[in-house]
Amino acid sequence: MAKLGRKSAVFFDMDGTLVDSETLTEPMIVALCGEFGIDDVDIECSQFFGHSWLEIERRLVSYYPQIDGKIDIPARMQELFHNLLRDEQPPLIPGSKETLIAISKRMPVAIVTSSGRESAAETVHRMGIADCVSFYAGFEDYENCKPEPDGYLKAAEVLQVEPKHCLVFEDSVTGIQAAKNAGMKVVAITFRCADIETATDLADMAIRDYSDLDEDFISSISNSGEATSASEQSRGR
């Protein structure tokens, strides 16, 4: 097992890291393009996994220049994605809920996603982890999207933890870059990763899903054996 050091907080990305919601990207893109009268969408949608709505918009416009400037595309993508997330309820990444709950008994936990805050709230509610999450942030809560470190630095600031004492679980290359740019250690979740080789190279440790973690993983990264309730931590919603 990679030596990650003792940590004081753990942060999770959401899509592809906690829930298998990257599968909603393609139907969201198809629905958006359909609204522009583009019915034959022939794009490899895995290229959008882990990217912000702004970056996805940029790539979509490169394929379909006619959609540029017609509407607020990032806002519409978030709306379509959230509706799919709410209605289709994608499954959890294996072991994600159990691992997050177990970690929250040792140290504060946060969720930092490139999706909207409403989608983070929906996921926290559906997973039944509200009492375990001290803070969650959507793209509205920080200035620059991944791979910039803003989201993870925001979480560290809210929880009053030095970045070097934080561990991040991420599934995308851009997300891993964001965490590394924040000065944090990263565990790559490759279950839905579009570029496993690059993600593995960038991360400090790589696993397919949480079932690959050693039994002593949480104790090995914990600064203290004392359980800490998330309700005792500051909540930055």
What does this structure look like?
- With 237 residues, the protein is α/β, with parallel strands linked by helices.
- The protein has 2 domains: 9-21 and 91-232, HAD superfamily/HAD-like (Rossmann fold); 22-88.
- It contains 9 helices and 6 strands.
- It has a 6-stranded parallel sheet with strand order 3-2-1-4-5-6, with helices on both faces.
- α5 (117-127) links the parallel β2 (109-112) and β3.
- α1 (25-35) packs across α3 (73-88) and α3 (73-88) runs parallel beside α5 (117-127).
- The radius of gyration is 17 Å and the shape is elongated.
- The protein starts with 8 loop residues before the first strand and ends in a 16-residue tail after the last helix.
Oligomer: single chain
Unreliable sequence segments: 225-237
Q: What portion of residues belong to β-strands?
A: 5-15%
Q: Which CATH architecture of the largest domain is right? A: 3-Layer(aba) Sandwich
CATH homology superfamily name of the largest domain: HAD superfamily/HAD-like
- Order of helical and strand elements: EHHHHEHEHEHEHEH
Q: Could you provide a short overview of the structure?
A:
With 237 residues, the protein is of the alpha/beta class.
Give me some keywords for this one:
six-stranded parallel β-sheet; 6 strands; elongated; Rossmann fold; disordered C terminus; 9 helices; 237 residues; single chain; alpha/beta
